[in-house]
């Protein structure tokens, strides 16, 4: 009995040592995972959108100006691609940094935050302006007057954007117009209907500008205009208005995002001023990430 008892004790001690060894190994793995920097987890990559977007150019500039972002890269893709990557990361509660802007429906759908930009490279609070070709006021005074009066709030734009994800921009715009007839009447008051005058609006492919573009398209169509709404790159927006190939746009973000395009063409366009105030660009992360500023990131080793 003594021998059997001693043998049992020996087995118990051996098992405890084995379990302790396994526990230490797992603990070491967990500790190693915790020691992996955010940059390593993200492969030193920020997920962006289209190459021609204003925020894309600003993001490249930020990567150059912030010394702590040395070795980081911007993955240019598309707005849809960026949203898809963001949704996947959030569903798995993984880290991700994307180029983002507000107003946008993603801020209503998810708990997100902008990283602080101490150098102000990505721009502070901005406005969205309306621009028109020279001569539009004389050629289409009614349409020009509506474009000049057009102004709405961030909540209006985000409502259209969010509802468009469930249906279409055409349907979301019409529903918003029906629910906000007082505001629409302020834009159209005293403007006479026309009989099939053609007008072309150009827009960027951002959800923000698609929202305003489709709302304006529907408003003008209710007054008898035949409206073409063409989504193009930001550079083409300004070029089309400056050359008279298009009539108007509700898309320019100023004074930072589209500043270079505006400076290039400002003598050949008519700036009707802000149609929305208080926009913002920046690097965006899910709120569960323990990071608050661009300067919290570390350079690639």
TrEMBL record:
The keyword Cell membrane is assigned to this record: yes
GO molecular function, one term: carnitine transmembrane transporter activity
Compartments, as annotated in UniProt: Cell membrane
Pfam families: OpuAC
UniProt keyword terms in alphabetical order: Cell membrane, Membrane, Transport
This protein's record includes keyword Translocase: no
Gene Ontology terms: biological process: choline transport; glycine betaine transport
Domain (ABC-type glycine betaine transport system substrate-binding): residue spans on this chain: 30-178, 198-299
GO CC entries: ATP-binding cassette (ABC) transporter complex
InterPro entries: ABC_Gly_betaine_transp_sub-bd
SUPFAM superfamilies associated with the record: Periplasmic binding protein-like II (SSF53850)
Descriptive protein name: Glycine/betaine ABC transporter
Organism: Ureibacillus yapensis
């Amino acid at each position: 009995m003594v021998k059997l008892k001693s043998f049992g004790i020996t087995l118990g001690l051996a098992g405890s040592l084995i379990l302790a060894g396994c526990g230490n190994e797992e603990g070491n793995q967990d500790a190693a995972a915790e020691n992996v920097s955010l940059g390593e987890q993200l492969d030193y990559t920020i997920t962006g959108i289209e190459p021609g977007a204003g925020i894309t150019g600003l993001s490249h500039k930020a990567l150059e100006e912030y010394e702590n972002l040395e070795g980081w890269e911007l993955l240019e893709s598309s707005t849809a691609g960026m949203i898809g990557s963001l949704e996947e990361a959030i569903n798995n509660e993984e880290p991700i940094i994307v180029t983002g802007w507000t107003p946008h429906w993603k801020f209503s759908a998810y708990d997100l935050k902008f990283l602080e930009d101490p150098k102000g490279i990505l721009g502070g609070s901005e406005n969205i302006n309306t621009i028109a070709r020279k001569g539009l006021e004389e050629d289409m005074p009614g349409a020009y007057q509506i474009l000049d009066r057009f102004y709405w709030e961030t909540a209006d734009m985000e409502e259209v954007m969010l509802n468009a994800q469930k249906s279409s921009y055409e349907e979301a715009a019409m529903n918003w117009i029906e629910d906000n007839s007082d505001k629409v009447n302020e834009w159209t008051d005293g403007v006479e209907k026309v009989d099939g005058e053609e007008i072309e609006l150009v827009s960027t492919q951002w959800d923000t500008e698609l929202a305003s573009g489709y709302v304006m398209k529907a408003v003008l169509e209710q007054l008898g205009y035949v409206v073409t709404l063409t989504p193009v790159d930001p550079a083409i927006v300004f070029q089309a208005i400056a050359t008279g190939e298009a009539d108007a746009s509700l898309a320019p973000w100023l004074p930072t995002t589209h500043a270079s395009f505006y400076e290039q063409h400002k003598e050949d366009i008519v700036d009707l001023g802000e149609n929305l105030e208080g926009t913002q660009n920046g690097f965006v992360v899910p709120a569960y990430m323990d990071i608050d500023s661009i300067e919290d990131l570390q350079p690639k080793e």
